[in-house]
Write a structure and sequence with these properties.
274 residues; 6-stranded parallel sheet; single chain
Length: 274
Amino acid sequence: MIIGDPVEHSFSPQMHNAAYEELGIDDAFVFIAAHVKKQDIKAAVEAARTLNIRGLTCTIPHKISVMRYLDKIDDIAKKIGAVNTVVNDAGVLIGYNTDWLGVVTPLEQMGSLVGASVALIGAGGAARACAFGLAQKGARVTIYNRTKEKAEALAKEAGGAAKNLEEIAEVREADIIVNASSVGMAPAGDVSPVPKEYLKKNHIVFDVVYSPRETKLLREAKDAGACVISGLEMLLYQGVAQFEYYTGRKAPVEAMRQALYEVQSSKFKVKSQR
């Protein structure tokens, strides 16, 4: 079950249910969405415990507030300061964070992150998971943010350097560029956090924004010859890790990817017809 406020936009039910069907375990597992207000988070957690619900996926605004009601919290989730996955282990509620895996897994498929120079744009919740995950894998992270003080605070916690967005030209020297801000998200999809003249063919460019599927940043990076990664891949791989926590089974990655791309295309088509 995914809980959030709002939650109707989530692609998680389609992704997880497609995986259950693929493995033939949809008679034992079903993934639903529940709109839970901030003031009801404690009641939702206790209901999960009482009803023996196997897992809770937490989205905005519950990733931090849920932590106080859990029995145990994984070390990485503690460092990140947020939980997006709660596993009910015989009444013991354990919190994890899989958002960081959603970032590092697609990147590691392209090569080791040890010593890689990463320009991380943003200093909010998504950026926190990215910064800690990348640092965990040995990358050298520089955080760019409109408010440099926020970038400095995150860099101090996760490790790395901090820059103001006015210094964005320096991303030219990075191996990897990760946009963890909301810049480029629909409906304001025709903006990019990185001017196209700073994008090079040797870059790997990862945009955590997944609506639209191809943001202006990714489009211009592709035009420059760079290797690009869609935000749907982050959503996929954080979900893969959740699926394996919830079921104890190896996730059917391709079935989950197909479900995500289908629902994203369907929702985009509906919006375009309005």
